[in-house]
Records
---
Amino acid sequence: MVHQQNGLLSDDALTRPQEGASYTCDLAVVGGSTAAYSTALTALKLKLNVCLVQPQRMVGGQFTAQALPASDDGDLLRHQADLTTVAGEEFAISSSQRLFRQRQRQLQPVAGRVVDDPGGSWVGHLSTTPVVAATALQEPLLPYLKSGKLILIPYAEPTALLMKTPTEHRLVNGVVCQDTKTNNTFIVRAKVVVEATDFGDLLEVANLPSRVGQESRSDTGEAILPEEARPQCQQSFTFDVLVERTHAGKGVSIGAPTEYGRVPWLNLQEFTGEFWVKKNDGWKKRDFFDAFGIFRYRRLLRRSLSKNKVLPGDVAVINWGTSGHPQRGQCCGNDYRSGHLIGLSRTERKQQIKQARIRAQAYIHFLQSNGVPDLKPRGDLTWTNDGIALEPYIREARRGIALTTIRHEDVAASFFPNQARSRTFDDTLGIGQYHYLDLHGNLVDGHVSPRGQDVIALPFTLPAGSLVPVDTDGLILSAKSIGTTHITNAAYRMHPVEWAIGEASGFLGAFCVWTQKQPREIVHDESLLRKLQGFLTRNGIPIVWFDDVSHEDSDFEAIQVMAAAGIITSENAENLHFRPYAGVSRAVVCTALVNLLGLETITPPQPSFKDVQPGKHWAYGNIETLKAQGMVAGVGRGRFSPNQAMTRQQLGFLVKRAMPEAYADAFANTPQDRQIVQRRDLSRVFYALLKHRLTI
């Protein structure tokens, strides 16, 4: 009977291929990343047959096998609802991801109570143990495993892509994989294959166009980059370790690795158990178990309802990067900065991973030998003997060269002065936010380090073009292999964003299966693209940033898609408000209609209306364009009254003149009365017109 226990799926939930076995499905998802999981779950909900090939027994990537279920959330996710905005989990993430977060809270109560943050770490907003995360992630998969809709193959990695070249683009129609425990080779054939590995391995084994490490300025067009590419400049990676604070004298030693104090890549001199914070008047030391020390930095389980209390029995994941010290300069924890993973042979990669794991053990041993003896490894929560994660926490992968490359100029605050958002791509399939470009550079010389406004990342969007390889069909890029750069990956790699990337991948894959179109065809066809965006938003996935429209709002789909299309956008770029209940002026309606119909604006030298003069009113061209088309008229005495609020009845007259064939559908859910048109009304009505124009 398919089930799970302690975060592990039962044997009968898993498929272990025989040598030469072959499987056929709609969507093949390759990889054990967070995005691999959300891709698979999304496709299953959309009634596709899915084959998920991954390196471990449990799903979830960052949350589970990499032992970092302390979600790297942007500040907007913890936003509290007020009189004009909704809660962060209702606008900053999808409804599906919100359900996952709610389930984690239910599975890990604190002192018998369900709380917002069961772990109570000081760097994040929500943390639980890997076992709880795995349990919450796998619960929705159980029915699909029982029915056979999901084939889950663990302990496997890709070795080749099956491809043919029927047209100008290579066509992927399957993947060759190998069981890493039995060495059995098997094939998965699929209508669409998703690259969702944590290393970008599909790109490597098929030699597809890709980028590694820090690019050159000519590669990406990012002005901040040097002229020469530095592929070995990559983000560091980390073997996370789960430890419990014990009562005095009850600590359990992790033991010293044989390399301890003998090899340069351990560098014991940089280890620290203290966190020093530089203040205006000097330095302040925070001890290991301080309320804002290293232990509680990413605490995953707490005994007290008081977040600031650190008690025996509390469990933390040790994931410590670099930090300053008043005498020793830069200190470090278990971040492994002495090497890199991408672009190496498999043998070299395995050696680097081995050394990183040894470093993690050495760091815990250092702590236990230097003032923090009361620690006990919690291997029962990591499915290992020593509390060290099954896999390293990966920050950077091989990135595919996609139709769209998301650049520094698309994300950083310096390019969007006085604005609340970064670039809203018109083909957006998701949103993400992390407050800065979090680059954990390794020790290779030449890393670019953005400063000031260049390092601040504004709320961003996920263009569909970044999921589509530039010259390959049948393949969707996901996880950390999408069309980001070394710099922008630093924001797109975070847990909630990777989940969103997976959802977008799942919907794009399903849409390809349904329409029998290639991903590039969907991205380049406005009708298909808007239909895809409609499917996403209808399922509670935000694609544009608005903090006052919940994914449970009845007009969520219309508002989101119309904003993505650039037809009805935010009134003020300086905030994230849509203001759904605000009235709409005649000028705004005219502008939206011109955008919707795609009309070429005209600006005659002589105005048709006294109160709409060229060069003096922002909507002059739009109003004159509709006047020339016979769609609008004045209010009498040669005036248009552009700032006058429009009523629903007047909007009905306008729609009848502009698109009479769509009139009935446009007002199916909107009364024609003398109430002022609200912005949500306009989005609802014009969305119906857009669907009619594009025959969606």
---
Amino acid sequence: MNRYIFTLILLLGLSLPLSAQEAVPDIRVAIDVSGSMKKNDPHNLRSPALNLLVGLMPDGMYSGIWTFGQYVNMQVKYGKVNAAWRRKARREADKIHSRALFTNIEEAIQRASYNWKKPDKRYNRNLILLTDGVVDISRDADVNQASRQRILEYWIPRLKKAGVKVHTIALSENVDQDLLTTLSASTHGWYEQIDDAGQLQKIFLRLFEKSARRDTLPIEGNRFHVDDNINDMTLLVFHKPGAKPLTIHTPNAERWSEEKAPGKVAWFNEDTYDLVTIKNPQAGDWVLETEADPDNRVMVVTNLKLKVGPMSEHLLAGEALEVHAHLEQKGKPVMRQDFLKLVQFSVLDQTQGDETPASFSLQDQGEVPDQKVADGIYSQRLDTSLGEGLHTITIRADGATFQREYRHVIQVHGQLAKLDLEKDQGFLVQLRPEPNLLDTHSLNLSLKRADGEHSQWHEEHGVWRVTLPESLKDSQITVVMKGKRNNGEPVEVEYTRKLSLEQPKVAAAQSHGKSEEHDKAEEHHGKEQTGEHADTLTAETEHDKAEEHAGDEETHAKDSKEEHTNWTLVIWLTVMVNLLLIVIGIGVWLFLKKRKRKADAEIEQELKV
């Protein structure tokens, strides 16, 4: 009888909507301390950035910090984050230096991921890797290349299998960009390339939000509202060096500063930010007396949470982004319609550099992309607004007595791959697939030529190259790229170009959007994706741009001189030079032949003896 009662209770329990237990964040950090950091981070801004990351980590998650140069050191022992762990981490953050030799990226990955051998859904695993260099463990280039290859062929598959997201930060333009982007793209992580160490703090904030789920409150006009469901609150407030100290106005009209704050407040101050943690904050409206910054945050620990479904990190321009959100109270989905009728769900889409975000409401009416009417899950689909660039997607739940907010940054790419055409004893065709969109290991490239001949592609550091003869001048080629997207969907893209030596590289770049290239993408459901992806012909660095510009000026000068050239004289000189070269070649050939006969005779004589 008891067994039947237990079974009935179990079945009733299974019929109730339950929330899957949230994975515990596990964030490990590996920071480059090689000597080149003296140039790229002269003021050692890695230290305050790491302190910010440490201060954002909530109790109960797991973390560890490693530094690497020639050797790898565990700066802060891996373990559960608590007040003691944070104190230790802040002391060690102040010891970051720029004195090490070499850059042992492979061992940093190996040491930081020592117990990540198989997947474990209980943990949300993330590795943040900061470097300003390339794989450099020896003066022998072959040794360095072997280490780099092991990262690509052994460590990336292992990390991917263990469910680890690798987020990479390149603090220089001289990094191995292909390696770092491959590390992040292959593991569904995030890649950032910056030239100013002053950006590190906000980059660490972004990577923390991608690695650990924290509920936040919206800030409008430096004002935010705290409700009765909030237990703890952490304020992150950015400011310029030397700015007026932060003052916090509480709902009961108190004014707090770093010097005048009650015992329940932990206040950590750096030159460019304040990090303030408050236990059991008073309900009501709070005000920050400081200069507004869009990256300021109010992170809270609460029983009333805004849950947002998985969203892509990278999209192709024109693709749709589906947003699904719901509220949870004490771990269970909120489905009471009388309560939800008082809540407005919305999503804001803000492009980098655009001050005014586009706003859309989320609906629970069972219309696509919403799956079921009145199930408490609110949905919206963003498509036409998602143009190329960096987008901050903000989801909000605004109730009568509370507010919740969630932010997610995505990168929208203009095309699946970039096709470059250069003059190189004929034509050098280069295709650069976007690793954040494509599974580069699945790619298969072919080239259709006017003469019907076969061309052999060569891949190196993420770039596919093929050289075509000058005899194909003014003919048309078609590059066909087949493979899979990172989400598993098949893709086929065609790039059609006309080969022309007369068209300089810069002129081709200026005709962006008017090329003869046509892209076709086939999605997994068999639908045809249309749209043109014009190739961009841009130089890799400012130095290359300067050289290219100088080359254009030189070409222009030569073209001007050619207007006054005596072509009869040029042809006559060319013929005479060719005849002279032929005579010299015949003479050298006869001399070498005579010398070889003499050497053969001497060898034969020695054998007889």
---
Amino acid sequence: MRDFQLPGRSPVYAAGGMAATSHPLATLAAVEILRRGGNAVDAAIAACAVQGVVEPQSTGIGGDAFVLYAPPTGGVVAINGSGWAPAAIDAERLRAQGLKAIPATSPHAVTVPGAVAAWEALQRAYGRLDFAAVLEPAIRYARDGFPVHPRVAFDWVRAEERLRASEAARRIYLPGDRPPAVGDRLRLPQLAATLTVLAREGAEAFYRGELAAAMVASLRALGGVHREEDFAEYEPEWVTPLETDYRGVRVLELPPNGQGFVALLMLNILEGFDLAALDPHGADRFHLEAEATRLAFRDRDALLADPRHVPVPVAELTSKAYAARLRRLIRPDRALADLPPPLLRGLGHTVYVSVVDGELGACSFINSLYDSFGSGLACPRTGVLFHCRGRAFRLDPNHPGVIAPRKRPMHTIIPGLAFRDGQLWACFGVMGADYQPVGHVHLVTNLVDYGMDPQEALDSPRVMAWPDELLVERGVDPQVRAELARRGHRVVETDVPHGGGQCILIDHERGVLVGGSDPRKDGCALGF
């Protein structure tokens, strides 16, 4: 895999429309849909569907989705496309089996995939084209084949053992009984057939009928307790975004069961420091970001759950007063000690799509399998690779995130939007499981405090406080690492980059879009 620190790349400028994704074929698909008269919603769904084919380690129709959409007419709508646990799930029975946590490769980690239902609900409400049109590029790549790109091949090799744990996954996703190499051409005929059914019959076919029956049968054969009604009764949820003001920029995130409030809490904490006076790649900036991360994650791990089942004190967590109390705990010269451990420890695999159309409608779209290749469990008939979001549930009966029937797990995936001077300004997202709110904060502060363009902001080296280690990328200067260690951080170089992201800024004064795409992934930003 190429080095993930590539400073000095230029942003992309366009006036007619723009898309930025983590894979070039997905970006091309989005631009193709825009040129055919589709809007940002159509293009984002098309891009994500393509990514589920050409980046199968990261996303797919067996996963979940969260979306923020700002229509050209004004306002912002949000949809939570995360699935629920089966109605027959029983935490006490799982504990009786000796489980302390839900393994990622267990069928109990597979909640009902919510992505397809969210795609169709969003597209019906706000798209211009029909569902068949936006799925056509993905069907074409799955049926006719696609070349494997470098980052995808790198991830595929790392996930080989997980894919071998399931006979269907091994057969479908290890062609020739090995991970495909860079440049290998791969076809996914079962997935092409499933996508073709969805194009013809819509999401109804995924949640009811033969496809749903096949997926449920495959999960039950692996020991799951799923039933067809768990799929048939699922619906995505339209929700009201959360927001905060950061130095005059209105930043929007989705509410729980996602972790969007973590990004807002971190921004509120950091607003009390003069970041602009600090070196953007220096120890002072990274130290403050790390301490805000650790404090915000402490609250996430204690309180984040499905608000349909337990109350989550979002108003307090996102208030300026609460952030001020946390800010007072931060010492500029020393790392805090004795924080509780985080809920999860994993790199996570997700795709993010940013699309702004010619009318300045903006779709911030994120879709995920969670771990690389999700649970590693696949349905042999449909080719659907199931995610493992259920591993975020707890088995502690006293924790708000304990697994329960029809409950949604804690979610890490978060799309972002930002407004400036009352106008839509930025459509952005950063992948990387737990890193995502940190990535949002790092990106927003790069843009606002340091005046970076989208590409500079994405290229910038990253750190992640987690919480007893500070995982630093290779691009962090050795002297900065030494200073962070002196302040009490346990500095460890990460062997893979922190996530990947995309960002499109709207320059209203000049009438252009300015886009960037993260060098940590294979993708790009394109416009016309």
